[in-house]
Amino acid sequence: MYRREIQEQALVPKGADEWDGRAGGYGAHPSHGGYVDDFIARMRLDGARSVLDVGCGPGTLALPLAARVDEVVALDHSPRMLEALRDRARELGVANVRPMLRAWEDDWHDVPVCDIAIASRSTLVADLDAALHKLARHARRQVCLSYPVGGGFVDPAILAAAGVELPRVPDHLLLLGMLHRMGIVARLDLLHTRSRLAGCADFDDFARRLAWTTGPLDAAALQRLRAWYVADPQRAARGGRDMVWAFVAWDVERADDAG
To answer: What is the mean pLDDT of the chain?
Structure first.
């Protein structure tokens, strides 16, 4: 069902080159603040010595987690994101984060098994079932991930105001169904974060951020969007409604740990 929805919606995850273009300012985005604390608070870090962070970006979770464990192995398919991670690690004096250039679809034979495997906001992939199996194989104790709730990343009211239709993201319940088929009963929490469009400097900044998701907006769409923006400045400052993420976690039982 998941694969069918991805195909029917023609939903194509953004490639490494597109993420390269966002590497510079992505780590400081205001939507990260509470989300990072909420995600880490739900991890079972007691006794954990290593974390595998898949889709690490510029170290949004990898860097704060580095203070809690001996090593963080940080995977991303964007070279510029990994470069930003290295730069931030040097600035913070963090020496126990190991970046690796890997995509979900790549061969992971040299990716180490860690105590905890996480995939934060990086699970919208063409073959989610394969991704879940990879995470499970590379974790000794626990897997934690997040997945968008509500069908997309932008408040539908904003899209309607601009007259834009976007492919819908498959429901997070399909992810839980895949895990159930794997024999996994996972824990589900909902994390509410600020919209990606929150805190824009002005309308031009707002429209530019929205275009990252929608693609270029024509003059008519921009005019309608501006009318929405100026009608309620407080609503515009919030970027519309909050983004909701499904935090999904489960404990891993490995045969090689059984004794």
So the answer is: 89
